[in-house]
Amino acid sequence: MTEQRTTGRPSVDDGARLVSALFDGVFDQLARWREAIGAGPTETTPSKLDELAATLVLPSLIADDAVLIGAGFIAAPDYVRGRDVHFAWWLGPLDDNPLLGTTDGPTKLDLSTRGYADYLRDFRSLEWYSIPETTHQTHITGPYVDHLCTCDYIVTLTMPTEIDGTMIGVVGADIYVKRLEKELLPTLLAIERPVTLVNEQGRVMVSTDPTLAAGTLLPDRPPATGASRYELLACAGTPFALAFEEDAS
User: Fold this and answer.
1) Is a pLDDT exceeding 70 seen at residue 80?
2) Residues 29, 57: contact at Cβ < 8 Å?
3) Which pLDDT band holds residue 150 (cuts at 50, 70, 90)?
């Protein structure tokens, strides 16, 4: 279903297009990183891979008003010489992070300092890696609480990287859900009815309804209104949809 604009205010369709454009922009960036990494050697060392990944992702992490909070390349097993697990991954500047405190520059993820990160030794089973590996397509994971780096709600975008048909890893980027709010709420709040961005499972990401917190599940029917149910409008190019109240009239 689409909604016809009847006033000069943005419509639900406009909100859905904004969501699509935001994620399209990030995937365009990932595609450029993938091309650069895929053009590299068939075998590489940790230091060379880290140097290449840093050159690619750091400008996006330290830019003024950066959208991304984390980015990098996660290598497939055996791609990096002598390493079963290698994360060439950086975090942008952090504000009062429980693990790293407040930082004013990029920080490289150091798995050796994460004693609770043993689950990453089987990272191929994790959604952000396993689905791109299986489908050879881009993927968005989340929203979920990132206990490894940000300790906050994020979404993770990943894209498979291949050399001569063999997957060598994924390029990826993390976005705070609260950063999505900053990007989307000015437009969503101008829509005449409450709207809520949800994932495929109906989990709330961003909402103009103050009763719907990020991470909660969308209820079966809108609370405290005359509407009987929610309509869903897909956001093209993403697994997300905008939920809005069915016209009670």
Assistant:
1) yes
2) no
3) confident
Sequence ranges of the domains in the chain: 19-178, 179-245
- DSSP state, residue 18: H
Superfamily the domain 19-178 falls into: PAS domain (3.30.450.20)
Helix (H, G, I), strand (E, B), or coil: what is residue 70? strand
Strands (E), the chain: 70-75, 86-91, 107-108, 139-145, 153-163, 166-176, 195-198, 204-207, 230-234, 241-245
pTM over 0.85: yes
pLDDT of residue 52: 93
Q: What region does 65 belong to: left with phi over 0, alpha with psi -120 to 50, or beta?
A: left
Supply the pLDDT for residue 101. 74
Q: Are strands 230-234 and 241-245 parallel, antiparallel or unpaired?
A: antiparallel
Helix residue ranges, H only, the chain: 12-38, 46-62, 127-135, 177-188
Question: Of 83 and 214, which is predicted with more confidence?
Answer: 214
Q: Give the position of tokens 């942008």.
A: 92
Residue 42, C-beta contacts closer than 8 angstroms, at least 6 positions apart: 163, 164
